[in-house]
Amino acid sequence: METPPTAVPENPIPEPYHGVHVAPAQRGHEKIRWLAPSQRSDRVRVRRHTCECKATIYELCHSGGLLFMRRTVRGPDGARIHESDRLVTAKMEALWLMLLLGEAR
């Protein structure tokens, strides 16, 4: 006897879902150099991002073979956007993890 196929839920993530939250900045955390956004490339792919429920959102972006972080701070006067330096994958993924753990800001 064949077993009937199991129904796959449309959205496997339970409601309400929140993305990853950034830990509070740790004492002695590394300072990230935040720069004005540059138009260095015509395509940017967001690989990871933090939760939209906070006023400050971070995105790990890939462009031109390098990674960088984008920080968006939403406030009453609109959004302010900054970008980090562009680094090779291994270095930026380590910095992204430090950001999430509160070891960098």
Report what the structure shows.
With 105 residues, the chain is of the alpha+beta class. Helices cover 12% and strands 28% of the residues. The protein is built from 1 helix and 4 strands. It has a 4-stranded antiparallel β-sheet with strand order 1-2-3-4. It is globular, with a radius of gyration of 18 Å.
Reconstruct the topology from this structure.
Layout: E1 45-49, E2 56-63, E3 66-75, E4 78-83, H1 89-101
Antiparallel strand pairs: 1-2, 2-3, 3-4
Please give a quick description of this structure.
The protein has 105 residues and is an alpha+beta fold. The protein has one helix spanning 89-101; strands at residues 45-49, 56-63, 66-75, 78-83.
- Give the beta-strand count: 4
How many helical elements?
Answer: 1
Unreliable parts: none
Query: What form results from the Cα inertia axes?
Result: globular
Major pleated sheet: 4 strands, antiparallel
Helix residue percentage: 10-25%
If you average the pLDDT, what whole number results? Answer: 89
Order of helices and strands: EEEEH
What would you report as the Rg, rounded to the nearest angstrom? 18 Å
List keywords for this structure.
1 helix; 4 strands
